[in-house]
Each structure stands twice: as C-alpha cells, then as structure tokens.
Amino acid sequence: MPKAPSQYAGFWIRTGACIIDTFILLVIMLFFLMLFYQGDWDLVLDTGLSEQPSVLWFDIFINYLLPFILTILVWQIWSASPGKILLGIKIVDATTGENLKPLQSVIRYVGYIPSSLVLCLGLIWVAFDKKKQGWHDKIANTVVIKHNE
C-alpha cells in the first residue's frame, strides 16, 4: 500500500505509459491486420483500408477483443502494462496494495469508457486527484504507484 501521496504515479508519467502502450498495441494489431488482409500492404499502411471485403467478426476481434484480452492479461501477469513497466509504475488495489484481481482488472478496463466519454475528463482527473486516480481507478478501487524493484 502506498505510504505517501508522493508515491502515486501522476498524470504525465501515466500519459507517457499510455503512449508507449498504444504504440505497442497498434504494432500488434497492424501485424494481424496485414496477415489477415494479405496483399494490400501499401493501401493498408496509407489508409488503414484494404480492397478486400471487410470481415466483421475479425474486425470486432482486432479492434475490441484483442486489446481487451491483451490488456487484462498483462495486468494480471505483471500488474502493469509494458509502458508502465518501462516507466517504473504499476497498478495495485487501492485498499490492500496487492496485485489486481481478475474481476478488478475487467472493471478497470471497462471503466475507461465513462472516463473517456465526456472530453476525457475521467482521465484528466488524475492530474487533480490527491491519490492520482482517474474515474476508472475509482470505479475499480485501484491506484497507480511508482514501483522500484
């Protein structure tokens, strides 16, 4: 459990971690998209589109299920995303300071939806909250802390 507010990870370091995670996720998604929609490399890279017909189940998997599965998986394995690991922060239960439970990870991930809906106010909230919690953290009872191991 964090002992002092100075141990909570703030807005900018979390933003940096998010940028790193987004880049990694986009590379993974692009790999699968290019593998599935073969042959349109230039068109896919230039426009994100392919001349081949779209396959709804695959697009839903790549855009929604794959990010969900990968995010929950890495949170469960490392208590952090790759970006958070690189920047020395991790996600823990706000009450116990222990690693996230699976249901808590799912709630936190789904909590990004209301956090993002109104001009991303729930994400910006991290900058002003004394525990540096966004709405998704408050919903899931989590905090992001500086981690030195």
From TrEMBL:
Q: What keywords are annotated for this sequence in UniProt?
A: Cell membrane, Membrane, Transmembrane, Transmembrane helix
The protein depicted here goes by the name: RDD family protein
- Name where it's found: Cell membrane
Q: How does it sit in the membrane?
A: Multi-pass membrane protein
The protein's superkingdom reads: Bacteria
Asked if Membrane is a keyword of the record, the answer is yes
Q: Which Pfam families match?
A: RDD (PF06271)
